[in-house]
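User: Hi! Is it possible to get a structure for several chains at once, not just one? Here's what I have:
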Amino acid sequence: MDKRSVSAAEAVSAIDEGAVVMIGGFGGSGAPIELIHALIDKRPRNLTVINNNAGNGRIGIAAMIDAGMVAKMICSFPKSSDPRAFTERYLAGEIELELVPQGTLAERIRAGGAGIPAFYTPTAYGTELAEGKPVAEFDGRHYVQERWLKADFAIIKAEIGDTHGNLTYSKAARNFNPLMCMAATKTIVQVSKVVEAGGIDPEHVVTPGIFVDHVVEIPSPQQEEEMIRAGLQYEGGVYA
Amino acid sequence: MDKRSVSAAEAVSAIDEGAVVMIGGFGGSGAPIELIHALIDKRPRNLTVINNNAGNGRIGIAAMIDAGMVAKMICSFPKSSDPRAFTERYLAGEIELELVPQGTLAERIRAGGAGIPAFYTPTAYGTELAEGKPVAEFDGRHYVQERWLKADFAIIKAEIGDTHGNLTYSKAARNFNPLMCMAATKTIVQVSKVVEAGGIDPEHVVTPGIFVDHVVEIPSPQQEEEMIRAGLQYEGGVYA
Amino acid sequence: MSADMSNTALAEDTRLSSAQMAWRAAQDIKDGAYVNLGIGFPEMVARYQPPGRQAIFHTENGILNFGEAPKPGQEDWDLINAGKKAVTLKPGAAFFHHADSFAMVRGGHLDVAILGALQVSENGDLANWRVGSKGVPAVGGAMDLVHGAKQVFVITDHATKNGEPKLVETCTFPLTGVACITRIYTSHAVIDIANGRFVLREKLPGMSVEELQAMTGAKLHIEGSVTDLIVPAL
Amino acid sequence: MSADMSNTALAEDTRLSSAQMAWRAAQDIKDGAYVNLGIGFPEMVARYQPPGRQAIFHTENGILNFGEAPKPGQEDWDLINAGKKAVTLKPGAAFFHHADSFAMVRGGHLDVAILGALQVSENGDLANWRVGSKGVPAVGGAMDLVHGAKQVFVITDHATKNGEPKLVETCTFPLTGVACITRIYTSHAVIDIANGRFVLREKLPGMSVEELQAMTGAKLHIEGSVTDLIVPAL
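Assistant: Yes, the chains can be modeled jointly so their relative placement is included. Here is the combined structure:
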């Protein structure tokens, strides 16, 4: 078994127009910048993107939005230090937004990965984000029914990956990544280093390889926060 | 912050008659034998015990049943190489059984820990284990609604614990233990070794300390499978 | 073998052993497949993977990519499978807790689960956890597996020792799952379940379709050719 | 301070600073408590823990027991808090994914969450995520936190800059949560919410209950004594 892809471009090559794509990360932490930029180079349109945020600056998810690839965002917090890309298109009515409380977003993704089609949560009960959703009472308290979230693809950043797809993460760059690995039909992961099977202690595996389809080594990945501070802008193939 | 208890007896001292107690382990792997035996020495009665199994031989949970402490078992597989303790009392109508499919048991415990009062699962749909439970259809498939499981206490076996209650486990002795840590009002853990805060790499923590109340060091814990092969029997205070 | 043997004699004398059924099932598992083998007899499938193929075996209690049993005396009782037997690890193994383990199962991440059966009905219902209402019931992970894996196969004797069919129109034993089985490897045949019907794919070369039908509790349908079920001596 | 000052002048001149409100809230956090501090102004609470007490701070993006910001230039952008600011780790820290993080929140494992507010109603409803229906809405983890932590506190100016009350009978802004707040630390007072009523516990010594009531959009109830709200210069 060898799940290695030779390049980011090859790894994302199956993602086509209209796909639902989960993208890992919380802000820039755990964001798979190289995979996102490879996807921008391919430029499939009409995507639904699931991420905690909706891009920052002119790189990563923001650059996907700039490139006109994103029809809908599912996220909890579409604001950032430089939210222009999303804000302009949203206010112009060019991009749809499904706003989900952060914990509900995480749990809906986990439910998608765990085969749980719906669950009840106290979160958002009595608020406009629960409008139209079934409610139920358990033990005298009110709860909202939420549905699972699944995706056609997940694009993920991890730290070490082995040829079986077992993964570890770097610090809080873990965030949504392990959940999204579970919830997509195909999971594509960039790692700083690929090792042979056996190179990760089985006790330290965070994402077991069963949730991973493709692993591509990107030895020194770019960091979104630093790119934004440097004023970088990705326009497909090149940084402007 | 220091969550250490000086002994197994002290650690379980708050568990009283009528308590709902989750006990970690899958068969003997991950079973907190010393904490169970300390509880037998205290001998609270009318307990509800949640475990994957219902005891083996004449030690651990089987010895609790022998001692007349268990009013109800919630488990998936109340059979073992020597299931006499449970079988005899169950067939005599002296102990209640709630039989739960193994994955549903795990998910109900996780739901208890995660504040999810109910969820839907395909498991057991159309079988007698779903009788009386609400069913619903999502995307053309039928599902059973299952409720969370919580407990007053969880008694757990881990490998290394720090003074904050962060835990690692040994191999497949992990099983239900991390879930039960989350789902109990008070979680009591025996570990082979206690280290100071900082003694476990934050990347390798399996159970974060927020889910743990008491940690007691049992340097060379007994292993249920070996005790059964040796024909040991625990009768409170002594091995017969 | 003469064609005039009674069905009963045929069933006793000419049938696959458990190992041979396991061998046949193993031929359908692809390289790199994620597989859960039910406790007991289905566990034998792991031994008969064709050369060059390596499935990744999953056990409910939280291991991916475990291997053979260790030598006696070298057991680590924290390294066991769902049947509580000691196992070993292969390179690329991972440990995880029970909720993650059943997320793999329920979430459709396993390619194949292979289980034993008391009865299988022609619409794919499985009964394999309880004979009646007496004794101590125990279900384990079977009900999760049958609604989780992408394909759920059964390995079973074609009929009981008393000659009662195990492939039936409707299960009379308590169900494990509804419409969940897609393929059955029996002691005499390989049968798919499609559109609520048993479809015969392979049968022992020494028996006729009529002889097989006589051992079966529901109609065997033929779609295309029925090939010979040929396995090595094991 | 003279008692004949107008309420407006009092509100402008005699009020706690943000740091002082954070200090006051910090006095109610016990040693060893698990605490989530909302993005922005509530984060200041961490600075003012009384000597000898050490809370464990939780951030939604998957860290327990993080500490102060690193020195400029020493940031690790994989080590950030929910506000995406760089943080450091304390001994005994742990990393975990977002579902486990919100299991801690929703499952009632946090002792205290402290949030900012646009409005709080006398039955404990909180509005803090959206002013109206214009612009880009963003909710983050606030709706989860208010229904998760054992105690959910608010730190807020007692009134807006325009003098409009933030403690009201009914919130007019979109709700974050229903009946979820139990204590409010304002620029002028400490107020509990009990049985659908604002109960005044502490107020600035320089103002009367009537002056405070005039700044408040719902009735302030007195149960027992009202003590002086005294904080150090910060």
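Chain B has a mean pLDDT of 97. The two ends of chain B are 40 Å apart (CA to CA).

User: Great, thank you!
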